[in-house]
Design brief:
Blueprint: H1 2-9, H2 16-33, E1 40-44, H3 47-57, E2 61-65, H4 80-88, E3 91-94, H5 100-109, E4 114-116, E5 124-125, E6 148-149, H6 156-173, H7 178-202, E7 210-213, H8 219-224, E8 228-231, H9 243-256, E9 260-263, H10 270-279, E10 282-285, H11 301-316
Parallel strand pairs: 1-2, 1-3, 3-4, 7-8, 7-9, 9-10
Antiparallel strand pairs: 5-6
The chain binds zinc ion.
């Protein structure tokens, strides 16, 4: 690994001192970080990227995730050690536009091994569908791509597009194991197709198409399956929703026969409970899958997506 790192560092034309420092840091952490020998050293930004890297990389990769379980990804601050680790990575998988700290660190690292998942599918702006800017989402950032909804992994079809792109780029990075990466990608895409079919079938006949959520993460999912996501004002999960929006949600819920206010596991359920109490709706969990913890309703992407489907079917009155 050390030899490979030298050959990668030289073309960056970084100051010689930086090269030496990089080497020192690498050797010092070698025992701890690089114990997997010949495996591809992969850094994933947060859970949806980690899952793709693990599923497609299989036993040819050793995946480190920058976002620890239970941490809201957009709040992430990187440690100097994590930032240094980016320079050692053989392959970095991230989603630009959701974690400014990661975007900045990757830019600074000048890594030529980073893959932006947002470039492997098409992003859309769901701002208007969730009621305009004031009901926007916490992951909206200024600058490049502002307004684009990053929650692509909650749509199995878009996630499959990203999976194919990740598979292709892993083949390029590590051609020796290309056949395995292709096989793993095909298997994952097949499972995502099956999941898509389960959602299509499960949500086809429902009493209502509208669901209310504190975290407007389900724009792509709603669009894919003909549903309407009503996000509650207060982009910060801890923020109080405005009385006007609660009134609006009340009206929408009555009109659309919505039954449930969804909240997520990584944030407080206070907003959901307040709104549910004010509108006479139930509360339930719809997991945006931004991290897996002990509280998650499932141990991996597929299990949580299945519980999300069950929760949606119940809330929408699936027949
Ligand atoms: Zn989110």
């Amino acid at each position: 690994m050390t030899v490979m790192n030298v050959s990668r560092l030289i073309p960056t034309t970084a100051v010689a001192g930086a090269v030496v420092l990089g080497l020192t840091a690498c050797s010092a952490s070698d025992a701890a970080d690089h114990k997997n020998g010949d495996k591809l050293n992969v850094v994933a930004s947060f859970y949806p990227m980690q899952f793709l890297a693990e599923q497609i990389g299989g036993n040819h990769v050793s995946v480190t995730t920058l976002t620890k379980p239970g941490v809201e990804p957009h709040d992430l601050e990187l440690t100097p050690r994590q930032i240094g680790g980016l320079g050692d990575a053989d392959y970095i998988l991230y989603l630009k536009g959701i974690q400014p700290a990661v975007d900045d660190a990757i830019k600074l690292s000048e890594s030529t091994h980073s893959v932006d998942a947002a470039k492997l599918t098409t992003l859309e702006d769901h701002g208007t569908e969730t009621g305009g800017d004031e009901h926007g989402h916490e992951h909206e950032h200024e600058g490049e791509g502002a307004g684009a909804d990053p929650h692509i992994w909650l749509d199995p079809v878009k996630y499959a597009e990203v999976a194919k792109g990740v598979g292709a780029s892993l083949e390029k990075t590590d051609p020796g194991h290309a056949a395995d990466y292709r096989k793993n990608t095909d298997a994952l895409v097949k499972r995502l197709d099956t999941l898509n079919t389960a959602y299509e079938t499960g949500l086809r006949n429902t009493a209502t198409k509208t669901f209310v959520t504190t975290h407007s993460a389900f724009g792509y999912l709603a669009e894919r399956y003909g549903l309407v996501q009503e996000g509650i004002a207060g982009i910060d999960p801890e923020a109080e929703p405005s009385p006007a929006r609660i009134q609006e949600i009340h009206t929408i819920a009555e009109k659309s026969k919505a039954t449930t206010v969804f909240f997520e596991t990584l944030a407080s359920d206070k907003t959901a409970k307040t709104v549910a109490a004010d509108t006479g709706l139930r509360t339930d969990v719809l997991d945006p899958l931004e991290g897996i913890t002990d509280k998650s309703k499932g141990d991996n992407y597929f299990e949580v997506m299945q519980s999300n489907l069950a929760a949606l079917q119940k809330a929408l009155g699936a027949k």
